[in-house]
């Protein structure tokens, strides 16, 4: 339906260093982006679209994300959390 087809952090700046990784429940990396574009530029560029490394759609379930970036002021930020995938 064109809604929530991809996910990436919503940032108000372009980080000079950026890493966004998604893992399955077994800890396998299923997506990685090393560059960032804002949602205004292109919503799904460098975003996870719910597929394993661009291939098949993942099964419904909970996935873990990890983000590491550097702000324009040189501050390193790391965040992790969960993404729940379900199909209507």
Describe the structure.
The protein is globular. The protein contains no helices and four strands. The protein has strands spanning about 15-25, 30-35, 60-70, 75-85. Strand 1 and strand 2 (about 30-35) form a beta hairpin. It has a four-stranded antiparallel beta sheet with strand order 2-1-3-4, with no helix packed on it. The mean pLDDT is about 90. The chain is mainly β and about 90 residues long.
Number of helices: 0
Helix content: under 10%
Overall structural class, as computed from helix and strand content, comes to mainly beta
Radius of gyration: 13 Å
Largest sheet: 4 strands, antiparallel
Major sheet strand order: 2-1-3-4
Kindly, what is the distance between the CA atoms of the first and last residues, rounded to a whole number of angstroms?
10 Å
Beta-strand portion reads 35-45%
> Count of DSSP E strands?
4
Task: List low-confidence stretches.
Answer: none
Shape: globular
């Amino acid at each position: 339906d064109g809604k929530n087809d991809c996910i990436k952090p919503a940032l108000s700046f372009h980080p000079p260093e950026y890493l966004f990784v998604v893992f399955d429940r077994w800890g396998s990396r299923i997506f990685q982006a090393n560059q960032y574009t804002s949602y205004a530029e292109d919503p799904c560029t460098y975003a996870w679209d719910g597929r394993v490394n661009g291939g098949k759609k993942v099964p419904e379930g909970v996935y873990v994300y990890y983000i590491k970036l550097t702000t324009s002021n040189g501050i390193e930020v790391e965040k992790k959390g969960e993404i729940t995938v379900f199909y209507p």
